[in-house]
Every structure is written in structure tokens, then in C-alpha cells.
Amino acid sequence: MNYPPHNAADRFDPASNIFLIRSLVLTSTLALLPIHSASAVWITNYTSLSPGMGGSASGVWREVMVDNTGAGFDTGFVVSLTTSGEVKSVADATHPSEINEGFPWRDLDPGDTYNGLPVIAPVSLPFYPQVNGDFANIETDGMASSIVTFNFGAQITNPVLSFSDVDIQSDLVFTNSFSILTGTGNLMQSGNILSNSGSGSSIADEAIFGEEAAGSIQFTGTFTQLQFTVNNAGPDPQDDDDRTGYVVTTEFAPVAVPEPSAALSLILGALACGLRRRK
Questions:
Q1: Which residues contact 213 (CB under 8 A, 6 or more apart)?
Q2: Would you list the DSSP string of 95-137?
Q3: Per residue in 231-256, is it b (16+ CB within 10 Å) or e — as a string?
């Protein structure tokens, strides 16, 4: 004799189980999607620096308001920067602000300071987004190259790399394609390479950066790492050194890197649940 199931939940329904699995997978996927914010950005906040050749800088991602109100707050996601070149020390008397949370990657107003100098008239800077944040100076000697690597410690969507003071004899070669958001008039792009044309800067650019190039570029997609090479063709290893400051920002909240087995475990658990109900 065939007995009916004790209740409807005991009946195995392939369609409903497939729906359950899809729902669980969709829910877990949505939980991993980055959150976009129109009023805040996340920026590399360096808190420690190991100077010298092959040096590094480390810190966390900090959420700050685009209008620079409030101090912002640090997330739990660790970010680090390493290089085969030289990370300059805070003890370097000529560049004392290698880690400077108040550095303006934004337009300057009278009363502000830039590189220790007072601002007496409004100045537009070629950076996006317009925020204050940390940077780390990387120095590459003439006739040398440096590999620079950012390890994001999270999934970062559409990261923006801002940089200052790329010398005329240097170029930056990236492993990923990018687009220029803003920059000085001498900032040039050829494929995945950035360079300094040495001409075309505005009077304001010249006043702040001289012959050096600066700006912001954006990478499209989700990244856990960003890497590029600085090639310095200057003939003098010491006098032609390239010293450039870098910072990374994103308009999307950092997301934890998922464990490879997380999605598989979720699917297998849902299947096991369905088979258990079938019995």
C-alpha cells in the first residue's frame, strides 16, 4: 500500500528544490556585490612604512566623505604597497610628508598648503575624486625600473589610481587597460602606458608640478591587486631619479574575497536538504 507523505514538506519536488538552490545562490551572490555610494569614497590609508630599496607601506581602506566632512573611519580590510624600487622614509628631510592623511587630492583654496607652501589663490588640481588622503612616495633611479604592487586585501571595483610628479624621462606600464579621468596637460596615454610629453601644461599645472605630470586613471572591473612598472630612462642614476606619490580610491565599498569553496558548499547543502526531504 502506498501511503501519502505526512505533510507537504516531505514531498520531493524537483522544481521547488531547484528554485530553493537558485534562491540561496542568488542571495549569497548579492551579499558579495559591492555597495556604491554617491557621497563617500574608500581610500588607501597608510599607517606604517618600511623605507628603503624594496620597501613597503601598509594600512587599511578608509571611508571618507567626498566633501571631506569628518575624519572618516577605517575598515577592517588591509591594503599594502610593495616595490622593487625605493620607498622614501619620513626621515627624508626634503620630502617629510611621505604619509600624510591631510594631503589634498582636491582643488586648493586660499589658506590651504601644498607641499608645505601656502596657497594664496584658488588652484585646480588634476585629481579625481576630490578628497584628502594618504600617499606613499616611490623613487626609481635613472636608468632603472621599479615594479609597484598594490595588494588590496579585498575585492575593489573600478579602482582609481591617482599620482603626482611623474618625471619627463619616465613612463608607467600597466598590466591592465585603463582610462584617464583627469590629468595635467602633459600626461599622455598610449595603450597601457602613461608618459610625460614634457609640454602642454597649463600655467596652474606649471605652478604646482613644474614639468612633471600628474592625474587620475581608472580601471574597469573588480580587482584584488594592481601592478605596474616604472621605467626611468634618465641617464644619471642619481640626478634623474623619479619620485612619485600614489593613492588608490574607489566609489564602491570593499568586499571580502570569497572563499573558493563557499558557493560550492552552499549548493551541496541545498541539494542535501532536498534529498533529505525526499526520503
A1: 165, 166, 168, 183, 184, 186, 187, 188, 194, 195, 196, 197
A2: ---SS-TT-EES-B-TT-EETTEE--S-B--S-SS-EE---EE
A3: bbebeeeeebbbbbbbbbbbbbbbbe
The three-state secondary structure class of 72 is: coil
pTM summary value: 0.79
Domain boundaries, the chain: 8-31+260-278, 40-250
What are the φ and ψ backbone dihedral angles of 263, each rounded to 5 degrees?
Answer: -65, -40
Per-residue pLDDT, 69 = 61
Grid-cell match 612633471, residue found: 212
Judge if the upstream peptide bond of residue 34 is cis by omega within 30 degrees of 0.
Answer: no
* 3-class SS of residue 271: helix
Distance from CA of residue 2 to its chain's centroid? 64
Which ranges of the chain does DSSP label H, i.e. alpha helix?
14-31, 203-209, 262-278
Residues 6+ apart with CB under 8 A from 30: none
> For residue 254, which amino acid is it?
P
DSSP string for residues in 240-257: T-EEEEEEEEESB--BPP
Q: Do residues 261 and 171 make contact, with C-beta atoms less than 8 angstroms apart?
A: no
Bridge-based pairing of strands 52-53 and 86-87 is: antiparallel
What's at 268, amino acid-wise? Answer: L
What is the band of 227 on the pLDDT scale with cuts at 50, 70, 90? very high
Nearest alpha-carbon partner for 126 in 147, 108, 102 = 108
